């Protein structure tokens, strides 16, 4: 099967089924891509949970900021983790997500961000992985 077609089907399912998204590396700076993507997701009706240790305890886009994925309450229902970090940070984020987010279904890395070993680890745990793509670009094709 064509990998791009399979990934498109995965994205369409993510758009339909996901409601709660933790955004790792979400910046309070409106000029940053992470802020724009998170704002877009909120506007589409998704609950965004900001994760940024430098801003923990504050709010971004009206939501309380958590220092880490582990700091998010288990009952928050995080289904997707959108990663705005360098590729070398992805493995740690994936490990933390797998250990602390019981409803996790999707790991998503932004354009230019990829870690194939971490992606395979997540896939082996039954998680859908989308790498090197942006939900603000991909979601509208399936909404």
UniProtKB/TrEMBL annotation:
SMART domains: CoA_binding
Sequence ranges assigned to domain CoA-binding in this UniProt record: 14-113
Highest taxon listed in the record's lineage: Bacteria
Protein name: CoA-binding protein
């Amino acid at each position: 099967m064509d990998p791009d077609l399979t990934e498109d089907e995965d994205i369409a399912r993510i758009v339909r089924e996901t409601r709660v998204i933790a955004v790792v590396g979400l910046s309070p700076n409106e000029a940053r891509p992470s802020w724009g993507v998170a704002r877009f997701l909120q506007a589409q009706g998704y609950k965004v949970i900001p994760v940024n240790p430098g801003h923990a305890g504050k709010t971004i886009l009206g939501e309380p900021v958590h220092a880490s994925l582990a700091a998010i309450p288990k009952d928050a229902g995080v289904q997707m983790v959108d990663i705005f970090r360098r590729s070398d940070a992805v493995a740690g984020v994936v490990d933390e997500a797998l250990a602390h987010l019981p409803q996790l279904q999707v790991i998503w890395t932004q354009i230019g961000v990829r870690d194939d070993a971490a992606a395979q680890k997540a896939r082996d745990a039954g998680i859908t992985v989308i790498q090197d793509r942006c939900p603000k670009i991909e979601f509208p094709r399936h909404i």
